[in-house]
Amino acid sequence: MPAQPGDQVSVHYAGRLDDGTPFDSSEGREPLQFTLGSGQVVAGFDEAVTGMEVGEDKTVRLDPEAAYGERRDDLVLEVPKSAFPDDATPSVGQGVRLGLQGGGAVEARVVEVEDQSVTLDANHPLAGQALTFDLTLVDVAD
């Protein structure tokens, strides 16, 4: 029975960039479990698993639009160092949570630290990248 939206699926996967660099894998772990079509994974991953049969293998390449989107320059922000708590020392690569007006938060990474300012990047680390996944559908439950 092919996997359909609403099904709970279990998928083993290995992800790599166009240059062959691996970025994530379920190897050595339990398969990824999610409800197909629920938005728990990027749209292209959902689409690739839809219609697969248990035991089927598939390789799919996702353009950025079907993965984490294109990089957006408007998500790179320069903020004054004084915006950080006095006991915080921002460093390149550090993750920070930015509170949003009206509630909620977004994750960002520190990409540059100057004397008076810190540059943050709220793009997903894989934004702008095409992603290739090797998939194996392990299980489907209604």
UniProtKB/TrEMBL annotation:
The keyword Chloroplast does not apply. SUPFAM superfamilies: FKBP-like (SSF54534). This is Peptidyl-prolyl cis-trans isomerase. GO terms for biological process: protein refolding. Its main location: cytoplasm. It comes from Rubrivirga marina. GO terms for molecular function: peptidyl-prolyl cis-trans isomerase activity. Pfam families: FKBP_C (PF00254). It comes from the Bacteria. InterPro entries: PPIase_dom_sf, PPIase_FKBP_dom.
